[in-house]
Structures are given as structure tokens and as C-alpha cells.
Amino acid sequence: xxxxxxxxxxxxxxxxxxxxxxxSAEHSEIAEGLxxxxxxxxxxxxxxxxxxxxxxxxxxxxARKRGxxxxxxxxxxxxxxxxxxxxxxxxGAEFAPKEVLMRISGPYDEFGIFETPLLGILASxxxxxxxxxxxxxxxxxxxxxxxxARHVHPAVAPVMEYCALxxxxxxxxxxxxxxxxxxxxxxxxxxxxxxxAGDTVAxxxxxxxxxxxxxxRLILIDTFKDEAEExxxxxxxxxxxLAGVRLDTPSERxxxxxxxxxxxxxxxxxxxxxxxxxxxxxxxxxxxxxxxKEAGASAFGVGSYISGAxxxxxxxxLKEVNGKPIAKRGRIPGLTFTDRLIKLK
Length: 345
Known about the structure:
The chain is an alpha/beta fold.
């Protein structure tokens, strides 16, 4: 069992090498309590001095904004060696402002030091899942892949993409994020391939030759030439094997507009390729996605809207101490009524 940090002496004795390659916390360090705020260790020390560290309490976690519940897998891993009872919403459930998301009961010293990482896990996870849910509310049946790993620290990139899947996105490009959900990562090839190859058609044909048969033949067509022209060239060269074209036109050229999507769709149709889909990526928001969908795009890659979503602030309040209702000023003492929580531990 992992030994937890629970005293100021242990904090003082702990040494973190200044030559440490990655500042991000390792799994064992999170479980040990090393990512908590120091004041929870001070609280533990004081309660032990008072003989109150084993006091039975019940804490409730809630958010001030609506959202989609995510982070439960990691939250339960954090509490797996704690002698506590846990009730929570199912992962993926929508929640209202101030609704109870999780309830934890047990001796305070069994979970008190985990308040910081527990709230952090849920805050970030729910923020990412909620952004994905809002994207899918607009995308509807159109496939969406999360492309956000490049926008966040690699230590949390898999968590972000995993939470996007919980929020309803269908696939993820980050290898570990997809694998954690028992999925295969999704994606084709970047501009680098086409720039090095020197020609979109040549790269597309090489892609078709090299990739497994089950890999989607989705080709990026905005590297060298006009997108509408390049779409038709690639479709003709691949002789019925092209599943779709990807538009990722940079902002320096005006980005991907609804007008561009309409033209590419019309040119492909006129050339006899109505089956070739249009996949759009690059700075998509729900509002832009809707416009592009109406113009003829049928699949999307969404990055920064999900990866850059604000964490949904979480609060944990103690609502019972030794079975008696209690709360700080401004909050109502006692357990909050809810019939949506499921006992997990």
C-alpha cells in the first residue's frame, strides 16, 4: 500500500531533485498526497494533536455551473485505499449548478488530505467533458475526433482526450487517451507528410499503399493548391478509394469558411465523387461547426475548444460531523437531498 504524506515532518524530509526531468506528478506521488495543498497537512497535524483525526465526517462535492460529470475513474483510484463510503453520479451524467456530484463519508484522516487532487481531477475532467458534450450537441450524427493533445501538457493530454470521449466525442487522436477508453487512436497524416513528399497526390497514393486496409483514406488537401482543385485531383487519382478530404486551411488564408466547404462539395459532386466526405479541422467552436455542417461538412476534428475549456470549479463542504448536521455560514447544514447518486464504495 502507498504510504501517504500526513505530517509536516514528512513534508520537510521530502526531497525533490532539481534535475527531475518532468515536473508533472507521477501516479505514486498523487496517491501519496504530494499534490495536495500544505494546509491539509497542517490540518491533519492539528487534529492529531487534538485527538480528533478519526472524527467521522461526510463531505459533499458540488460545482457552481452545469456540466457533464467526468473524472470518476481517477477519483475512485485516489480513494481506493481509503476506509470511506463513496456515492457519486455516474460518469457522463449531466449535472445542474450546485447539484451534489459526490458524497464521501468516513474518518477525516482517511480522505482529508486528498481534497485538493480530488477537486482538481473533477474540475478539469468535467470542463473537458462538458466542452465535448456542447460540441456534440451541434455535431449531432456527424463524427467528431478530439485533436487537442498538442494544446496541453503531455502529462494531462490523455486525460483530456479520455474525458472528451466521456463527453460524447467519438474518437481521439492521442494514443494513450484512446487506448484508455479501449479504442484505437484516430487520425491520418499532417502537413509535414505532404511538404516532404512535395505533392499531395503522390503522398495520397503512398498513404493508400502503406496504410492498413482498415485505415480511413482521409487526405489533407490544402497544402499546395486550391482546395477544390486538389480535392478533385486526389479523388481522381485514388480511383474510388478516397473516403474523404480534410480541410485545415490556416487563418493566414482565411481559414475554412462555409463558402469554401460549399465549393469543395460542389466540385466533388460535379466530378462524380458525391461519396467523398468533407472533414474540417482548425479552431472549431460550436457556432463555426454548425455553419460548416450546414455548408456540407460531415466530420470534424476539434482541438482547442475542448482542450482549452475552463475547469469547472468544484467545492467540497463538510455537511455532517459525527452524524450531526453542520455547515459553514452561507450553506445549509446536513446532507443535501439527491436521488441520483450511486454507491461505489
